[in-house]
## 1
Amino acid sequence: MSLFQTVLESIENPNHAGSQQDLHGLLNLATLLPELGGAQQQVKPILGVLGSHLQDALNEQQQNSGQAAVQQTVSNLSQPGAGLQEIVNLFGQERFDGLIGEIAQRTGLDSQLILQFLPALIPVVMKILATGTHQTDPQAENPVLNNFLGSNQNGGTLLTEAFQLASQFLRR
């Protein structure tokens, strides 16, 4: 099942934290990046790079600290106002620098600009991964996060596809 389908099922499940607003947040990513010009076209390569690095970082955290730690990280970073230092802590400095460099290379954006919008972008993506969080049982599985981490697909591909499908779904 696709990540997007899992997100939709979680949104429809009253026991899960997700709402249709989370999809709107994903779709509104392009408006977070107004100074980019052609932001809609820039969102896909940004999500492609971010998703891949995010999937690796969260899988690594899961192996080292367990599922509960990953769920806590997703919950913490899904809140608006996540700082740049918290994002660096998630990825580690070396992976974070690689992430910034790869986004700059793929999009032609200045690294300073990337550093400015990343703290707005990360909570939106984490909010999507948190849509499967159980409202009353924090120990319950999060099917969206499990789909993202357990997929044989690249995390960037998963996020890009979810962005495209959310856009189609919300325009109906």
## 2
Amino acid sequence: MSTPLAYSLTRYLAAKQSVDDRALNWQVWQCLVAALPRATAEQPLRILEVGAGIGSMVERLVGGDVLSYATYTAIDKAPALMAEARRRLAQWGGERGFQVDEGDHGQLHMRRAENHISAETETIDVARFIAREQGRRTWDLLIGQAFLDLVDMPTTLPGLCSLVRPGGLLYFPATFDGDTVFLPEGDAELDRTIKDSYHQIIDQRVLDGKPSGDSRAGRRLFAYLRTAGVDVLAAGSSDWVVFAGANGYPADEAYFLHDIIHTIDMALTGHPQLDAERLCAWVAQRHAQIEQGALLYIAHQLDVLGRVTAPVGERQDSKP
């Protein structure tokens, strides 16, 4: 495909779904499935997903027959994404034989034989959600996909853990862990400077006056979980690897790559360590390589599954 003239977060997340499906660590996924408590109509599984985007994880869990009876709370701070999640999930469920009923306040009920999934979506910042729900509700499973590298883990993770019941699970797939590769290699020094500068931007990101990023979140997550009273049950790599085959890039992954290059361009424009003309030429070259089906993109990520073991009041507050 040619380089897009405009970019959409909704389309990016939809294009990313096939990349994630291929990348998610199967061993960690199987451990998650085995560790989930048995759900019944009377005691459905309670799941909370933070940064839920357009609801791809709900589709993945239901489509993989992981969920039979569940109440699923999905939150994201972007109203457009939550609206798209409800639209997509209603369409997805209807196409797969579910009776789909939409309720008030972002609720969606999907029913068929031996299945009842009640999904609730809410547009809210995760910090506000934690402050509101602490001491009120707990969940059996908390999911944060590609999420922890976008927040300040030392302050956010303990709050997330407090929302999980003792013995409950935390699943953090696709947590970025500090390496990005674009091939074919061009000017090696320029490639390295762009990568390092972009990771620096992630590390220095501030939203609402608070730190909001960590380019090595995957590896650092282990120590933060230990401090929060969480045992790691399984972990493994979930690298994005995107390349063109004989028929080009799969699904909408060419758009996904164009969006990645555009994001780097927007983040690094005006960066003091980068010459503007060289950056512009690098961006144009990478877009052209996507159009030609020549670009290979790799991003190193980790999937981590943990179980809450320590009561909230007994968890350590110090940083690891």
## 3
Amino acid sequence: MLRIIIAAVVALIAAAAPTQAQDWPTRPLTLVVPFAAGGAFDVMARVFTPPLSQILHQQVIVENMGAAAGIVGTNRVAKATPDGYTFLFGTIGTHAFNPALYKKLPYNALTDFVPVALIAEQPMVLLTRKDFPADTLPQFIAYVKANAAKLQYGSAGIGSTTHLGCALLNSAAGINVTHVPYRGGGPVMQDLIAGQVHYMCSNSAGALPQITSHTLKGIALLARSRSPFLPTLATAHEQGLADFEAITWNAFFMPKDTPAAIVKKLNDATIEAMNTPALQDRMRELGVTLVAPERRSPEYLQTFVESEIEKWGTPIKAAGISAD
């Protein structure tokens, strides 16, 4: 009799799963941004929440968990109930850098998540205080080498994209400067503007408004080719660091075992949001490039993450960068 009861319960659960996926969502969703409020990634995530809320007919609420290079927030999603109501605003840091930086990472970037959609890419920018005595990358490198002992660069935290972008730049340029980690992109940007640190490597979404308002000085785009959003800013490649680039990306992920039907619904909603003129206009204002339609599927994102882990693991280890 007990076996019959257990079998009946299992059958009911199995039958209910497709129905639950079909009805999803029936309540608000939480988008975990594993970084502090006010930073570039937080701004980007919040651009998506209004159209997603409208398309899904449920409010999408941003939850900021800015600590430990995104590990805390990312792990929160990895351990969340896979019912479709919690998803992650993932980054190159959470899913490509961290596996190389941490030997005891509490989540597995490949197996603890279901990929939903690759969203956007953006080159990083070398930013300095507006009174920094250099206007080009060669001038910057020469000045920093001569004054390294009294200079500091800031980042959103150890192992963050802003840390690794500058760490790799420093390594490529042959300079050694004290690193000051903050708890998020917003605080380090504020202190750079205030003159408390001398430079940082920011995502273009955070750099663009500071450069256009002349609050900070853009020295180089950390990419091989120029950006249409900052067409007058020369690249590091153009300024002598051949083939150097630091390009970040963002994507949505759900916890592993999230039903495929729910993943497809969120992927469809994300693509629909990306196709709205209002979101496209806002992303252009931020200096962010939405990825091409053929790169927006869950299958593409899975393969992409695998390649990014391999791509970044070698230079991070070669540069001797570790967060353990």
## 4
Amino acid sequence: MAIDRPWLPAGALLCNALIWGVSWWPFRQLEARGLHPLWATALIYLVAVFAITLWRRESWRQLLRAPALWVLVLAAGTTNATFNWSVTIGDVVRVVLLFYLMPLWAVLLARLLLREALTAGAGLRVVLALAGAAIVLQPEGGGWPLPRTLPEWLGVVGGFSFALNNVMLRREAHQPEAARALAMFLGGALVAGVLAAGLAAQGRVPALPPPAPGWLAGGAALAIAFLAGNLALQYGAARLPAHVTAVIMVSEVLFAAGSAVLLGAGTLNPTLLLGGALIVGATLLSARG
């Protein structure tokens, strides 16, 4: 498909990456106003579910007739719940790098679910991702390089679920676009909402606060931003080759790291930069196929 202005789809993808890369800041502002990121995620995606229901009512019937799409519901919901929670409470740079261990999980899931062969290139991506993760997670006093804090575990789980999300999108590419979009939005609302309600009942997260202008306005603005980002992603990804889309989307790491360092929500040091370079390198290699 010829593109008269090729910078438009690239700009749309950069817009999406920017929205996700700096989303940690509004989530922290909402938490400061009493709205936990899990509740915020659930409410934001409920708005998206309402919007897509008005736009494509038949998407509900399509979703209910496709059991495999409920795996996408779970994967997309887990991705959003864990990512938004982790960047709200943890070191943004470390969390985003652990989230981008997707090449490792994608290789394994593609083999399991898509029956893709394990090639030398795939093996290289796994080695790079594992080496990067080991460097990022290596404790200062020595020991096994494993996640040690809740944000780190959430980042790893989020990256795995995002890889599963992407693999399921490829596997179910024959399903109607509206049904796949509804599955992803519904997952964001359901998983975050169930987690929030369950943890609130145990007293581990605050209950949903009463309506207040501060968090209602902020939540509405963030919902609009995420909807705009999703539309931008669909516009750009439909007009550019997949490997170009993947490379541009890695800019989310730069947006997240840069904004976090500037605003004091993350730190950079030579060790973290080395581990991050390996993880990003694995992601860029996966973009080339």
